[in-house]
Design a protein that fits this description.
Shape: elongated
CATH topology of the largest domain: Globin-like
Number of strands: 7
Distance between the termini: 43 Å
CATH class of the largest domain: Mainly Alpha
CATH superfamily of the largest domain: Globins
Helix content: 55-70%
Bound molecules: protoporphyrin IX containing FE
Radius of gyration: 26 Å
Strand content: 5-15%
Largest sheet: 5 strands, mixed
Length: 390
């Protein structure tokens, strides 16, 4: 979304200086309805599981209530300039990031609209002026808000389509290269293992220490290359899930067992209730969770901040929620936008495929993967899998 988009939608609804002036007359009266508007807005969210589930905790809810107040204030007081538009675009992007289904944006505006209209009628009656200009201005500005917020969903859709097209050809190439690489990498790994064994048999001090150091380095490098080859293959194949019923607690254990290199990072698993089950492809979900766990451990290790990852699984009325939360350094805003893109990585030992594979696996299950993070306060990856409670 850019300036041209903003100019276009403003021109289309014919929003101009007289509308801005009319809206400004509403600003002093707005505090009369703000509390009720905010409480009604979030009260309604609580009644709809699919809206409620994008909310993570009370701190976020408090932040949101404040955001909504600021939004309502700046909607009427303006100035309706480029900065105003950019702030609006960010709201839309944030909703897309947290996985808020698009219809709730429309529905939320539908709940806000009558309250604002009623206030407009009240203000007009008090001042003895015709309510028409204010009502028209309100209708236009709410349409602008909606157009901007909905455009973010469309942008996401276009980005996904472009990516799918690009990966069509690239994916085939990646699949064949990875397939060819698997064999030589397997040979290298086996030989390294045997060499390590031979080295261990030698009398202490009979071999330069550099030999062991370099062998370990080659081992790490070849393990990374093997992971890359196998992830590329998984990515390109995009295997369909094979669902069956399984215990969620066992899924968490399997995911933890798949991540060998945890380097002292504490990992805690919790399942609520402990005997909860799910119906999905347990192999694919374990891989998705293992990818998230591996990332969390690497983030903690590299930044030497924090030291604990928590894996949680729980049933909720709409399905299954899986969470991987770490207390590491968090993800900087500029990376957060891009971490799900294939081959995007910020780590020297990252393949840039873990998160995009994870997202694909979850979406193939009809689920959603989202992240919430702030620099310095860790990252929380949440998987939502819709399914009937069993
Ligand atoms: C009229 C419709 C809505 C408006 C005007 C609105 C406004 C906002 C604003 C101003 C922000 C802060 C954006 C930023 O970080 O810069 C935000 C974020 C967010 N909104 Fe909405 N919102 C709307 C609908 C909803 C609905 C229906 C939900 C359902 C739960 C929702 C959930 C969220 C969440 C989870 C965030 C991210 C908060 C965070 O992590 O800090 N929003 N919204």
């Amino acid at each position: 979304m850019d300036r041209a988009f903003f100019d276009q939608i403003r021109a289309y609804v014919d929003f101009g200086a007289s509308d801005a002036a009319a809206l400004a007359t509403l600003a002093p009266a707005l505090p009369r309805i703000l509390d009720e508007l905010v409480e009604d807005f979030y009260g309604e969210i609580q009644r709809h599981d699919e809206a409620r589930r994008v909310l993570v905790d009370d701190a976020q809810l408090a932040r949101l209530k404040q955001s909504l107040r600021d939004w309502a204030r700046t909607m009427v007081s303006g100035p309706h300039d480029l900065r105003w538009f950019e702030l609006r675009s960010r709201i839309g992007q944030r909703h897309v990031e947290v996985g808020l289904p698009q219809r709730f944006v429309l529905l939320a505006i539908a709940r806000i609209r009558p309250r604002l209209f009623r206030l407009a009628l009240e203000v007009a009656a008090e001042s003895g002026r015709s309510p028409e200009p204010l009502l028209f201005a309100l209708a236009k500005v709410l349409d602008l808000e909606l157009a901007i917020m909905l455009e973010s969903y469309l942008e996401l859709h276009h980005a996904r389509v472009r990516q799918a097209e690009r990966l069509g050809t690239l994916g085939q190439l990646a699949a064949s290269v990875s397939h060819e690489l698997k064999n030589p990498l397997g040979v290298i790994n086996t030989s390294l293992h045997l060499l390590g064994g031979e080295l261990a048999k030698l009398p202490a001090g009979s071999c330069a220490p550099a030999v062991a150091t370099h062998l370990a380095r080659i081992q790490r490098g070849s393990r990374l290359a093997a992971r890359l080859a196998s992830q590329l293959l998984d990515f390109a194949r995009g295997k369909q899930p094979e669902p069956r019923s399984f215990a969620l607690a066992a899924l968490l254990d399997d995911a933890i067992a798949m991540v060998e290199e945890r380097d002292g990072v504490e990992v805690e698993a919790r399942c609520d209730p402990p005997d909860a089950t799910a119906h999905a492809d347990p192999g694919q979900l374990a891989q998705a969770l293992a990818n998230l766990l591996r990332n969390a451990c690497e983030a903690i290790r590299e930044q030497k901040v924090g030291g604990k990852v928590t894996l949680r699984a729980r049933r909720d009325p709409l399905g299954v929620v899986l969470v991987v939360a770490d207390d590491g350094p968090g993800i900087a805003a500029e990376h957060k936008e891009r971490i799900f893109e294939p081959l995007y990585t910020t780590r020297p030992t990252g393949t840039g495929l873990g998160l995009s594979i994870t997202r694909d696996l979850i979406e193939a299950h009809g689920g959603r993967l989202s992240v919430s993070t702030a620099p310095g306060s860790g990252a929380v990856f949440t998987i939502l899998l819709p399914q009937a409670t069993r």
